[in-house]
Amino acid sequence: MKKIAKLAYLFGALPLVSYAQCGLECDPSSSATLIGGGEYAYDCYLNSQIVSQNPDDANYSMLEPCDFAIKFVDMDKEDLAATHTNRGVIRIALENYDGAFSDFNIGMTLLPGAAQILVNRGNAFYHSGNYQMAIEDYNRSIELGYSDFADVYLNLGKSYERMGNNNLAERNYRQAINLSPDQAEARSLLDGLLSQP
User: Fold this and answer.
1) E strands, 15-104, where?
2) Are 110 and 76 in contact (CB under 8 A)?
3) Are 12 and 148 spatial neighbours (Cβ–Cβ below 8 Å)?
4) What whole-number distance in Å separates Cα of residue 116 and Cα of residue 31?
5) Where are the domains of the chain?
6) Considering the chain, what is the average pLDDT of its residues?
7) What's residue 194's pLDDT?
8) Are 88 and 120 in contact, with CB atoms under 8 Å apart?
9) Torsion angle of C-alpha atoms 79, 61, 104, 18, degrees rounded to 10
10) Hey, which residues does 33 pair with through a beta bridge?
11) 4, 73 in Cβ contact below 8 A?
């Protein structure tokens, strides 16, 4: 098979839903990932971007270009890790958490220092209800220098609030607002937290 020139894109789309309207029921944002490996990996990336913006648009056919790229396209380990990560994002939207964890774990094996993969795996833990593991992955991503700290602190706040630890939830919402003053969801969740009796 002819080797296809690699492409690299940064992926950092946030869901389009208004966070102020849905509070904790909204999904934590997906993280940035790099993709590569030609048209199939690029289609996998595009599909992961679509479901990050609207998880209801997810369908199983979106996994096909990811599966093909992983099995048949000659990619370096960074691009292979990124393609696994993008497939994991789609699997979260399809509520296939075991498959998502598998993809993120493979990505972490290939790129142990990739903070953005930890954020995505943290999102999978959050969605599956394992808030303690989500917190561990989010905190580790911060230690590794993940660049979009405001969103990670927002996700930490949501996880702590789900666990009933309102003090740490408040601290993380405030940190998200300090880092990104226009962070509407963190402000809305903080207001709701502070208005509780």
Assistant:
1) 33-35
2) no
3) yes
4) 6
5) 9-194
6) 82
7) 93
8) yes
9) 100
10) 11
11) yes
Tokens of 65: 């270009």
pLDDT value at position 147?
80
**Type of residue numbered 133:** M
**Topology given in CATH for the domain delimited by 9-194:** 1.25.40
Q: How many Å apart are CA 193 and CA 131, to the nearest integer? A: 18
Nearest-Å Rg of the Cα atoms of the chain is 17
SS (HEC) of 83-146: HHHHHHHHHHHCCCHHHHHHHHHHHHHHCCCCHHHHHHHHHHHHHCCCHHHHHHHHHHHHHCCC
Give 34's strand partners. 10
Instruction: Give me 63's structure tokens.
Output: 């996994």
CB distance 103 to 134 below 8 Å: no
Phi, psi at 33, each rounded to 5°: -140, 155
Measured CA to CA in angstroms, residue 1 lies from 20, 21, 43, 100, 130 at distances of 49, 49, 19, 28, 42
- Give 131-181 pLDDT, tens digit per residue: 999 999 999 999 998 888 899 999 999 999 999 999 999 999 999 999 999
